[in-house]
Amino acid sequence: MEFSFTQEEELFRKSAREFVDRYVKPNWIELDDGKYKLIDIIQRMGEVGLLGIPFSSRYGGGDGSFTMVALATEELAYGDPSLATAVYYLLNNAWPFMVQRHGSDSIKEEVLPLVASGKAFIGIASTEPQGGSDVASFKLEAKRGGSKWILNGEKNIVTGISLITNYLEEGGFVTIGRTGPIEAKHRGLTVFLPLIKRHGKTMEGFEYSDYEEIGRRGLPTGLLRFKDFEVEDSQVMGEVNGGFKIAMEGFDLARTMIAAASIGATKWLLDEGRKWIKERQVFGKPIASYEGISFKYAELATRLEAAELLMFKAVWAADKAFLRGDNVDILEVATLGAMAKMTAVELAVDAALEVMKWFGGMSYFKELPEARVLLSALSYYVGAEGAANIMRLIVARNKIGKEV
Ligand SMILES: Cc1cc2nc3c(=O)[nH]c(=O)nc-3n(C[C@H](O)[C@H](O)[C@H](O)COP(=O)(O)OP(=O)(O)OC[C@H]3O[C@@H](n4cnc5c(N)ncnc54)[C@H](O)[C@@H]3O)c2cc1C
């Protein structure tokens, strides 16, 4: 076993780090305050070739790996620990990759080159107002109308809607719709790719409103309502009534890289925290000399090392399953992805709370940036891409057995 990356991966990490130092680090606080626009970073990423890494070169992608995506995601989260940039990046790799895997040829040819050049965003519209965890009970209606599919209903807490409508040429969401009776549960779900903007034109048949977020404010999230929204057959992903498996694959993949984002932010927290505890003098000594502080640092640094190893194991399993076609059970990606997300997200939240205590009372004020990281990491703690208990449910079910 080798704990190292290939030369290509190291070079890619270096170029991602250089990009982050130049364009992300100087702007992250203004991005979080809404005074700097994510689109400026996205366009530059497109120009320097940081996007579309795991897509095929046939669709303008880099023929790269999810390991590379995870390395870049970590760097982006280190440079923007409010996570907006890293979340945009990981979503816009995971969900368009599902389009490459399950979409029609015409939709792949239309959308993927635009994603890879920073002109399109493909996110996920899964959660509904009555709840996000119980996917098998989703209701968004998808009915046949002439030669098209017609979508009606609401998807709640959807990231990236106004990013598409305001700034991009094209975009939409991998959307889970009900095509079979509710009693059919997960066997009556189909995945569609409704594009809310196409060739620069905003489509008819949807409304949205953004929520006011407490963290990761550079990337908008809101409510999406479809009203007789028309979808062509070419926008169906996979088989009709076979959507559940596709959606789960997407979540499994995305979660491995959410762990990378949480780890990047934790690295930033611990680096800032370490500098501070060596510098801050209380009772005549640096606070790092008190075991109440240094032992906490040691515990967090140890958890960080463990979480990063787990994350790269999950990403390695995803590379094997999705890109190398090795005979990897998708349940292994699901289990490792859930473990990695759970571990890394809980670490980021714990680290933010601890590091804020090291900075003392001033950490409560916006004059210091650490609280921004807490509020952003909480997005993944309370729900995004699966609530904490659902990660435990996946691990328990896959390790103990479905019967319990
Ligand atoms: C910032 C942010 C961005 C998001 N972006 C998107 C997006 O782009 N697209 C999208 O579709 N969704 C998005 N979401 C929504 C997210 O996927 C959901 O919040 C998540 O799936 C949980 O659904 P819910 O919030 O409706 O909670 P519910 O499903 O109502 O669950 C409520 C609570 O019950 C717990 N629970 C549920 N079932 C069990 C059980 N069997 N055992 C024990 N506990 C259980 C859950 O862990 C949770 O704590 C986002 C969320 C956030 C916070």
TrEMBL record:
Domain Acyl-CoA dehydrogenase/oxidase C-terminal, residue spans: 241-398
Pfam families linked: Acyl-CoA_dh_1 (PF00441), Acyl-CoA_dh_M (PF02770), Acyl-CoA_dh_N (PF02771)
Protein name: Acyl-CoA dehydrogenase
Keyword entries, A-Z: FAD, Flavoprotein, Oxidoreductase
Domain Acyl-CoA dehydrogenase/oxidase N-terminal: 6-119
Superkingdom of origin organism: Archaea
Domain annotation Acyl-CoA oxidase/dehydrogenase middle: ranges: 124-228
Organism: Thermocladium modestius
Co-factor(s): FAD
SUPFAM superfamilies, per the entry: Acyl-CoA dehydrogenase C-terminal domain-like, Acyl-CoA dehydrogenase NM domain-like
Family: Belongs to the acyl-CoA dehydrogenase family.
Keyword check for Oxidoreductase: yes
The keyword Secreted is annotated on this UniProt entry: no
GO MF term list: acyl-CoA dehydrogenase activity; flavin adenine dinucleotide binding
